[in-house]
Design goal:
By secondary structure, this protein is α+β, with helices and mostly antiparallel strands. The chain has 10 helices and 7 strands. Helix 6 crosses helix 9 (218-235). The structure holds iron/sulfur cluster, FE3-S4 cluster (F3S) and FE2/S2 (inorganic) cluster (FES). Keywords: 2Fe-2S, 4Fe-4S, Iron, Iron-sulfur, Metal-binding, Oxidoreductase. This is Succinate dehydrogenase/fumarate reductase iron-sulfur subunit. InterPro entries: 2Fe-2S_ferredoxin-like_sf, 2Fe-2S_ferredoxin-type, 2Fe2S_fd_BS, 4Fe4S_Fe-S-bd, Beta-grasp_dom_sf, Helical_ferredxn, SDH/FRD_Iron-Sulfur, Succ_DH/fum_Rdtase_Fe-S.
Length: 248
């Protein structure tokens, strides 16, 4: 059975804006993105929203629902009561372009700062075998759909624009960890994680892990192991060198 839902949607641009109230039809089985589309179709044809797959796989429809970073296409209307007002706002950490669409180019700049995978010289494809545990670790990190909800929620940059230059954010610290823990990668990523990507600014609040729609254990499986490697090296460089030389 359909009902009339109450929505409060942020509308505006980089110059400013505010919340607008709407009453809109909601039907059984719908997600928040369906209702936003109905708003576009019936009341606000110029409402800007970014989306693509409607299946939780492209990472385009990131926004905030009742202040919580969420994918619009994966948030079921059945998680709210019929009488409550659902507030939809753009991601707060990134500059607004228009309405629910933000400029996420910060993330692509950070991605480019990470040196590429560096396999040993002279090794041809197929000459190495990886242990299953190493395969599974990479596979977990590679479930990432680059929705940037983790970066949106991380307090290091959410309320501190000034930290953006020094901090890669959980998504890309995880990428650094993925490469560092890859058995064939020869680059020294630990020092860089600390000096260039801002690992030291993360104080393991785990908010990033909580909002990840792919349920990647960003903090436990990527950030904490990287911090342990930084600490190992700082306190015992000989042990670190030994691990580096005899690890394979
Ligand atoms: Fe999104 Fe999770 Fe990837 Fe972060 S790690 S960008 S929350 S999928
Ligand atoms: Fe930020 Fe995640 Fe660390 S939310 S502080 S990167 S644990
Ligand atoms: Fe692709 Fe939501 S539209 S993740």
């Amino acid at each position: 059975m359909g009902y009339q839902g109450h929505f409060r949607v942020w509308r505006g641009s980089a110059e400013g804006g505010g919340l607008e109230d709407f009453t809109v039809e909601v039907n059984e089985g719908e997600v928040v993105l369906d209702v936003i589309h109905r708003l576009q179709a019936t009341q606000t044809p110029d409402l800007a929203v970014r989306w693509n797959c409607k299946a939780g796989k492209c990472g385009s429809c990131s926004a905030e629902i009742n202040g919580r970073p969420r994918l619009l296409c994966m948030t079921r209307m059945s998680t709210f009561t019929e009488t409550e007002t659902i507030t939809v706002t753009p991601m707060r950490t990134f500059p607004v372009i228009r309405d629910l669409v933000t400029d996420v180019s910060y993330n692509y700049l950070k991605a480019r700062e990470i040196p590429a995978f560096q396999p040993p010289k002279g090794v041809a494809p197929g000459e190495y075998r990886m242990r299953q545990v190493d395969v599974e670790r990479s596979q977990e990190f590679r479930k990432c759909i680059e929705c940037f909800l983790c970066n949106d929620t991380c307090h290091v940059i959410r309320d501190h624009e000034e930290n953006k230059e020094a901090f890669a954010g959980p998504r890309f610290l995880m990428r650094v960890a993925e490469l560092e823990m890859h058995p064939l990668d020869e680059a020294d990523r630990v020092r860089e994680a600390q000096t260039s990507h801002g690992l030291g600014l993360c104080n393991i609040t785990k908010c990033c892990t909580e909002v990840c729609p792919e349920h990647i254990k960003i903090t436990d499986n990527a950030l904490i192991p990287m911090k342990e490697r930084v600490a190992d090296r700082r306190y015992d460089p000989i042990v670190w060198l030994g691990n580096k030389l005899f690890r394979r």
